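=== RUN LOG ===
request id: a7f3
mode: sequence -> structure
chains: 1
length: 70
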Amino acid sequence: MPFPIRTCAICGEEFELRPDKPGFANRCPTCSSADPEDAATQQNDDLKGDAEINAARRKAIRDLLYRKDS
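=== RESULT ===
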């Protein structure tokens, strides 16, 4: 049974959709291979934001637990 032929959503090139193809079903293998770099950059940006949020959360909890009752 032949594999279905799809058209890439990014470059418009036709490719065979194979079960072991990495990436998205609507992108050709060359366009799918560029995504991990973009995802890694976005993940690093998210981690920086999470670190700031976690630091603020720790400070708020510390202030609630160890505040001096006057």
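=== NOTES ===
The two ends are 79 Å apart (CA to CA).
The chain has a mean pLDDT of 78.
=== END ===
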